[in-house]
Design a protein that fits this description.
Number of strands: 8
Radius of gyration: 17 Å
Number of helices: 12
CATH topology: TIM Barrel
Strand content: 15-25%
Largest sheet: 8 strands, parallel
Shape: globular
Structural class: alpha/beta
Helix content: 40-55%
Length: 253
């Protein structure tokens, strides 16, 4: 059975003190993770060690980096390598978030390199994909997302992709005033799984957790997560409110 995951993406928000307070509030808010459920907190680089220590000993709860560089090391001032993240015990890394693609021009080829370097360092990527508004408006979202998957992931072995994590972000439904329905989420998640199945077989495809990243909040989490191919969410703004994120965790299958 594939993992059900509530992943919090803090983005470039909160001071360290605010982040620690948020974790304290969340831990004291009623929520429960079963054996098949994970909570992952993607926090800013300066907070990784602190938040990791604060969550030490908590079952099925992990800290993730929000990015890593595609190079092993070198003269890349301001960048953070996978090896550095490994050295402080980080197990998950968010890769290819729509904001990284848009604002930092991350290509599918670059993301393939990042995926590789994460595997080389024993870390699990949370690979993001999704289409912008212009693509959705001309109804070519399926082929667009398929290309993202093929160019960044299809060099991997079936063993590497077994238990992998993908996050689908309908960029057109984030901050645009447009709303993606749970049905639209299921439709794309099913398409992603079918693309993976065609390349790697049903067993591998059925082992991959596909998270939804389109403005998940407490009020819609249970409905969205209830869809058969939706295995949780990559949550932005709502993850900055303890009660909201606790309710989202409780919405997992």
């Amino acid at each position: 059975m594939r993992k059900q995951i509530a992943a919090a993406n803090w983005k470039m928000n909160l001071t360290l003190q605010q982040g620690e307070t948020l974790i304290d509030e969340l831990l004291s808010t009623p929520h429960e993770l079963t054996e098949n459920q994970l909570a992952i907190f993607a926090v800013p680089f300066p907070y990784l060690i602190s938040i990791k220590n604060k969550l030490a000993g908590k079952k099925n709860v992990f800290v993730a980096a929000q990015n890593c560089n595609n190079k092993k090391s070198g003269a890349y001032t301001g960048e953070v390598s996978a090896e550095m993240l490994k050295s402080i015990g980080i197990q998950y890394v968010v890769l290819g978030h729509s904001e990284r693609r848009e604002y930092f021009s991350e290509s599918n080829a670059m993301l393939a390199e990042k995926v590789n370097i994460c595997f080389e360092n024993g870390m699990v990527p949370v690979f993001c994909c999704g289409e912008p508004l212009a693509i959705r408006e001309v109804d070519t979202q399926n082929s667009y997302v398929e290309t993202q998957l093929k160019e960044s992931l299809f060099h991997l072995t079936a063993e590497q992709l077994t238990g992998f994590i993908i996050a689908y972000e309908p960029i057109w439904a984030i901050g645009t005033g447009k709303t993606a329905t749970s049905g639209q989420a299921q439709e794309m998640h099913a398409h992603i799984r079918s693309v993976l199945a065609a390349q790697y077989g049903n067993t591998v495809a059925d082992s991959i957790s596909i998270l939804y990243g389109g403005s998940v909040k407490a009020s819609n989490a249970k409905e969205i997560f209830g869809k058969p191919d939706v295995d949780g969410g990559l949550v932005g703004g709502a993850s900055l409110i303890a009660a909201e994120f606790a309710a989202i965790i409780n919405g997992l299958k």
